[in-house]
Amino acid sequence: TSATFEASLQGPALVPGTYKVKLFVDNAPVMEQPVTILNDPRNPATTADLKEQFDLNAKICAKLNELSKGTAQIKKIKSQIADFLAGIKDSAAAKPFKEKGNAISDSLENIKNELYDEKIQANEDNLRFPLKLEEKLATLNAMLQSSDTKPTTSMYAVFNSLSAQIDVQLKKIKMIVDNSIPAFNNMAKGM
To answer: pLDDT tens, position by position, for the chain (191 residues)?
Structure first.
């Protein structure tokens, strides 16, 4: 992930309430105890407000996880194609595979570049390179977590917009996996 600046990949904080904590050793429960999370008495937010914050934070984290799985899938596919192409010794036989493989890799690279910017590695990099969907969503996550309050209407609007944009890119990955990759694999079987 490139979200290393003023953003957060952290999950939601628990909502005030009573929970059960279980201690496991070797996958067997050895202890269980209730624990109560109290609201900070200085905080005017209600438990319902904090529940809304928790719910939106959980949705953001789930979408960040989907995005991360998509980028990992892109890296894996590109690596597999590169390894396959490197293994073809006959340059005449390699030409159609390289054309098809490079087309798939280029399409995946374009999708990856919409999802995140791998050049963002340090705090100042977000000033030098444009923020992509992952960085924007992780920044929303940080803003949401910056105070114990109900999310604003604009936070929901930004989440819905970013989520829809991410879904478009993830559907493009799925189309490549469902269509282009099987066609490439069929070509390779005939080699």
So the answer is: 444 556 777 788 889 999 999 999 999 989 999 999 998 899 999 999 999 999 999 999 999 999 999 999 999 999 999 999 888 887 787 888 889 999 999 999 999 999 987 766 666 656 666 778 998 999 999 999 988 899 999 999 999 999 999 999 999 999 999 999 999 999 888 76
C-beta of residue 36 within 8 angstroms of C-beta of residue 15: no
CA distances, 160 to each of 117, 145, 165, 166, 176 (Å): 21, 17, 9, 10, 25
pTM: 0.85
Kindly report the backbone phi and psi dihedral angles of residue 5, in degrees, each rounded to the nearest multiple of 5, phi listed first. -105, -135
For residue 7 the two structure tokens come to 């953003």
Q: Considering Cα of 168, then 170, then 175, then 180, what sign does the dihedral take?
A: positive
**Residue 169: exposed, middle, or buried by beta-carbon count in 10 A (0-12, 13-18, 19+)?**
buried
Q: Are 3 and 126 in contact (CB under 8 A)?
A: no
Judge contact between 71 and 112, C-beta under 8 A.
yes
Gyration radius (Cα) of the chain, Å: 22
Fill in the amino acid letter for 139. T
27's tokens: 């996958």
The H or E element spanning position 172 is helix 153-175
